[in-house]
Amino acid sequence: MTPDDLRETSAALAGRALELPELARAGTVAAYVSVGSEPGTLALLDALRARGVRVLLPALLPDNDLDWGAYEGEGSLTRVQHGGRMALFEPAGERLGPDAVTTAGAVLLPGLAVDARGMRLGRGGGSYDRVLARLERAGAHPALVVLLYDSEVVGHVPAEPHDRPVDAVVTPSGVRRFRPAS
Description:
Mean pLDDT: 91
Low-confidence stretches: none
Number of helices: 4
Radius of gyration: 15 Å
């Protein structure tokens, strides 16, 4: 995709996501900064902040678990190279601990694909599997939303017994729900 395509896709994705009632009523949203060819998230992060939403972003720990920090705008991000893997943009400020995600009313999850059951295919590092298990242990039930391109909503992805379906997938062309908005 060209830079213009990416900007247009990012703006469309943000617009669709901001229409979700789950994001409209969330005081805190756990999200992520897109990297590489992932659908752009910065426009959405900035729009959430402009609404007064507290946005939490992950910081990858050495064991692939995630710590969290507050997003205070694009200038609050730092580029972190994690070994031989891709560089990530993480919050530069205070770390709030892995349990900070349990305060979120909605969690935006990265993914490679989502299938017709709402099962998400991640990158295989297990970071978000840990997040979902942490939410379950805490009795937290935030809306789980994946941001993808239209072509990444597929018929079937492999799933393990510990995998959990998401509530919705947002693409530039629309929203597909797997569970009604609560």
